[in-house]
Write the structure tokens for this entry.
Amino acid sequence: MSTQTAVRRPVGALGRMGVVAGLHVAALYLIATSLGIVPPLISEPATAQLIQEAEPPIDVPPQPTVAHLQEPTVSVPEPVVPFDAIDNTQDQIIVERRDDPPVIDVVPPTPGPVIVGVRQDPRRPLTKPAYPASDVRQGNEGKVELEIYVTPDGRIADARVLRSTGSPTLDQSAVDEAKRRWRMLPATRNGVPYAQWHRLVVAFNLEDR
């Protein structure tokens, strides 16, 4: 009789609000769980992790070291040369060594014409010019330098004074003698004679007149 009375006892307003709130919370949790927003309360069983202990290191005996023997270095002092024995007067000559000498192309010379100048004819020696009497009386002496023009046949076509004796008569005597009586061997080119000017000196000396 008392039990039935307790069941039928009306529930208060606060109690009803608590029930309603609990239902809402439960519904929201189910929705969040289905959407993956909130993880389920039941967690997966933890798996045991096997931790393997590291093997103890193996002691490797050290390699025997080989001692390297180093030969002792002996320093020999340079001989001391006295200052008086040093010759500072001679220059030092540096010779450059060349294993291969330079190759020089030798070009043979081009054969040119063979030229022979005017020369005296040994068969016709040069005659002495006359010594003017006026110059003998005055004692005039000296040397005259002439330039003569020798033709291909060896004759003297022209003569002129390059350096005078100081006496016009002595100079003219030498010019006249060259034109009248002198003969020379003409200049030649490859054996062919040609005309050429030639210089020579005539001396006037009273002792040799």
Summary: The CA atoms of residues 100 and 106 lie 17 Å apart. Confidence is low (pLDDT under 50) at residues 1-11, 43-54. The radius of gyration is 71 Å.
